[in-house]
Design brief:
seven-stranded mixed β-sheet, 3 domains
């Protein structure tokens, strides 16, 4: 196994158990070091620090273990089983009303570069590193063992998530089985999930608890769900007794999936309408007034270079929503941009509220559901930020 030496002082973050090593922290990277290769990290005195996967780019090593252990099948089994047992403790594995959850959340489960979502009897894998991608076969084998061969299919959706510098051309594919059923249940609500064509793995599972919170306030209200994707917030609001729900997205695929999910839960009886539109334009032109507005936009900033542009985009859409919502209404607003810190998000929403010239209070500060755990040594894992605003 290749040994890499860190520069003087650069071992401090590793000793604090941060799972990323940046390329500038390494004394010298051999020219022949291949993407995905296992490496051991040492300080200048040749004291062992960690073992992980090498990756070309700013993040050069994703740490798998701070112990000097073999990264073999036993290692993968122990990590996956630990993730499974955590979901058992959360009451997700054998729940009567929920059969969709995240099984592995990268660094949050000490498996950097790996995402696994469970959709009833289908597991959807996303690899974000070549090192993990090269271990797909053992991951598939272990998943079948942990779930006692009850999974109908295991689908790999890594085509868009692997680093482009790797030089491979991955294809989304079934690693085991075939599509049998794409209907899932979340808190008793039914959803059709298209993990083959949909964003991420098919459903924004991280918003499960926040959708439930919306339901608490939706009875008798007029609700606008912007960036609705597959209609998760809309279904919850309608089931909770909302008088009217409008769903808006600029994606035809998203609108079609939303309409399917509304029909799945309510037939043709729901007081619901879906609109194919830009969210900001819809807000500017809407004649209807709303008691609750949900803003769950895509990641406006995926890296720091475009953060300022993203802040302006968040500010514009939040200002318009705060201006539009009825007096005494609520705005559920979110950012899923990892580079947008919680502090930056609050400041951005503060600026939007100030520009709107309305009295605004924060009722809730929200984050991702607990099956998306945040490694305490890796605060970057807390990517989802949310606020529930009360607007007088």
């Amino acid at each position: 196994m290749v040994e890499l030496i860190l520069k003087e002082g650069k071992e401090k973050s590793i000793k604090r158990r941060h799972p990323w090593v940046f390329s500038g922290a390494i004394e010298q990277i051999p020219d022949n070091l291949e993407e995905g290769q296992l490496v051991k990290l040492y300080d200048k005195e040749h004291n062992f620090l960690a073992v992980g996967h090498f990756q070309k780019g700013t993040i050069a090593v994703r740490v798998l273990s701070f112990e000097d252990v073999e990264i073999d099948r036993d290692f993968w089994y122990a990590r996956l089983l630990a993730a499974y047992r955590l979901r058992q403790k959360l009451g997700l594995v054998e729940s009567d009303d929920t059969n969709v959850y995240r099984l592995v959340h990268g660094e949050g489960d000490e498996i950097p570069g790996l995402i696994i979502d469970i959709y009833d009897r289908t597991a959807v894998i996303q690899c974000h590193s070549i090192g993990v991608y090269q271990n797909r076969s053992v991951i598939v084998d272990i998943l079948q063992e942990i779930y006692q061969h009850q999974l109908d299919a295991i689908y790999d959706k890594s085509e868009a998530t692997l680093p482009f510098k790797s030089g491979i051309n991955p294809q989304n594919e079934y690693l085991y089985g075939v599509l049998v059923d794409n209907q899932v249940k979340e808190n008793g609500h039914l959803f059709l999930v298209d993990w083959e064509k949909g964003q991420k793995t098919g459903l924004f599972i991280d918003q499960r608890d926040n959708r439930q919170l919306l339901a608490r306030y939706s009875a008798g209200k007029k609700v606008l769900n912007l960036f609705c994707y597959t209609g998760g917030f809309s279904v919850y609001a309608l089931k909770a007794g909302a008088d009217l729900v409008h769903s808006v997205d600029s994606s035809k695929f998203a609108i079609e999936m939303t309409e399917k999910n509304i029909e799945l839960n309510f037939g043709s009886s729901a007081n619901h309408a879906a609109y194919l539109s830009d969210a900001l334009q819809f807000l500017q032109n809407a004649e209807e007034s709303y008691d609750i507005i949900v803003l769950d936009p895509p990641a406006y900033a995926k890296h720091g270079q475009v953060l300022n542009n993203a802040i302006q985009a968040y500010k514009r859409i939040n200002q318009r929503a705060i201006e539009k919502v009825n007096p005494g209404g609520l705005v559920f607003t979110f950012s899923c941009s990892q580079v947008m810190t919680r502090e930056n998000f609050r400041k951005t929403v503060f600026a939007a509220a100030a520009n709107a010239k309305r009295k605004v209070s924060i009722l809730y500060q929200l984050t991702q559901a607990p099956d998306h755990p945040v490694n305490i040594y890796h605060p970057e894992g807390e990517y989802l930020k949310g606020l529930v605003l009360y607007v007088e």
